[in-house]
Please model this.
Amino acid sequence: MNTTTSTQTLFKGGEWLIKESNAFDTFTPEDFNEEQVMVKDMCLQFLATEVIPIIDRIDKMEAGLMPSLMVKAGEQGLLGASVPEALGGLGKDFITSTLVNEGLGGGYSFSVAIAAHTGIGTLPILYFGTEAQKAKYIPKLASGEWKGAYGLTEPNSGSDALGAKTTAVLSADGKNYILNGQKCWITNGGFADVYTVFAKIDGDKFSTFIVEKGMEGFTQGPEEHKMGIKGSSTVQLYFQDCKVPVENLLGEVGKGHIIAFNILNIGRLKLCAAAVGAAKMSAGNSIEYAKTREQFKTPIANFGAIKYKLAEMAIRIFASESALYRTSKWVDDKELELAAAGKPFNEALLGAAEEYAVECAILKVHGSEVLDYVVDEGVQIHGGNGFSDEYAASRGYRDSRINRIYEGTNEINRLLTVDMILKRAMKGKLDLMGPAMAVSKELMSIPEFGNDDDSAFAKERKAIVNMKKAILMVAGAAVQKLMMKISDEQEILMNIADMAIETFEAESTLLRVMKLQDKQGEAAVQLQTDLMRCYLNDAVDKVNKAGKEAINAFATGDEQRMMLLGLKRFTKTEPFNSKDARRRIADKMIAENKYPW
Model:
């Protein structure tokens, strides 16, 4: 594969797959400025003082409690980080607004309510509303005076959003749209004031409407009883000849899919941020418990099996966080580039998010699955107490599970990851053909031996390059063999997606550590290097496994043997003592009583 070194040129979405990134151009959490750190600390302080002490009352859905907390958050500016100052917000950059999601991510049901309000409850109007619509709704949403919700899902249309049955017909006098149908699983639905609702005009033009609480013909169902996020309001919405003024049409007739899918790109990245925040908090709870729980006359934190679990939590969090802020900076830079080219505020950010839709899908999958790992092992560390509602571990476990379902299931996001890359290649936006052909030729050559490159992290950088070659080899062969039928081979597509996810996360982690070592020196970043090497070592094995499953599913005979040999060549790793590395990582966590990076 011919790789090129990035300078300050901004990568296109998916381009990391065929180009080698420059660590010194990569944004990392260590690059947060003073204001960004202050904003995150303010979010953590809000959770510690306003949310966590009353979390049991929140889960019991005490009347008026969640809305009152949202008002308090609004008073501190936490609901309007991404809203322009002219509309009552703070007007912060994309990285700062992402940090708000991370900082508030450890608030269980409160985090869900806040994320839904600031994301899908506010952004459709902010980005697609008319000036009159924005002036009417956004300042009140930013302050928390009004709460927002989003009505897309229906009983028979979840992942297939365009299969919605809710209809809208223009009234005879032309003043209202008449909505009929229902929506389900509506977060904040029980107390929201403003709803973004999707319906088909005349049965086929998928469109979007702003519906207000109290409009004639609009009612909400009772609260759903859920496995987790019990304090989050979740109801069904019913529309029976609901009158919605024509001025409440959001965007253009028949263009509702543009609103739905563009908002989801941002939502997926922000969900990863919230998951990272929740994972850090959950890891901290597990550390505290492991230090105080004694068995065989010693704290269980002293046992190697427990240290493995704590370290693995940190390794996965570190990787997810690295990829999250690498991508957030790309979105931020692309937004500035589009704005400089004359794009208005809304088109700039939405265009930037669409550019990195592949990465947003990857982040959503990885972030949600990292959190699931952390809370699951958190319960295990707590033992029987982890199964008791008296401990936070059980709440974290229950609340985490929803993250793999909403904002597009992880299965859908895996399929989208590969589908979007292939479509960009077919449209000429991403040159996959050249690198894929180069890898194909390399399979016919004699394997190289040795490595004369003795520069910092040369072996790790080579491993990333080879992981990318493995993806190009498998994906290229699958497309060539299956052609148009590849969309029906979801198992193969998900294998390729897993290869891409692990590679992007591993590369992001490596770039972060390379940049850190350049600034601080090798000795100062030994533990971060341990985190990176542990993740990379496992990622290579996962790429090998996923690649092998894909190859065996579509190749036979000599082609299969050649590809399996190529995969083996591309997924070699140097011997690495991960046990000692994990112990060093865990000891640091135990000493600081938290996730410390």
Observations:
- DSSP finds 19 helices and ten strands in the chain.
